[in-house]
Amino acid sequence: MIAVPAALNESGEPIGIQLAAAYGREDLLVSVAARPAAERPWASHRPQVFPAEGM
Predict the structure, then answer these.
(1) Looking at the predicted structure, is the pLDDT value of residue 51 above 70?
(2) Exposed end of the chain (fewer CB within 10 Å): N or C?
(3) Cα(23)–Cα(13) distance, rounded to whole angstroms?
(4) 21-1-9-48 Cα dihedral, nearest 10 degrees
(5) Helix H segments across the chain?
């Protein structure tokens, strides 16, 4: 199994999808998972960070 970001919600937080493939088919899994990443590059996206309470 692999999880990849698929979209952003109204707050700018990522919404992910989880994919699974048959045993031994990691090649197919990685190939399919790369498609959303190619369509919507996420490398530059940085979600808002909130400071931890009580630190």
Answers:
(1) yes
(2) C
(3) 32
(4) -150
(5) 26-39
Which tens digits make up the pLDDT trace of 14-46?
Answer: 788 899 999 999 999 999 888 877 777 666 777
Beta bridge pairs of residue 8: 14
Task: Check whether 54 has a pLDDT greater than 70.
Answer: no
Rounded CA gap, 55 and 38, in Å? 38
Query: Which residues fall within 8 angstroms of residue 49, CB to CB, at 6 or more apart?
Result: none
pLDDT score, position 17? 87
Burial class (CB in 10 A: 0-12, 13-18, 19+), 29: middle
Rg (CA), the chain: 15
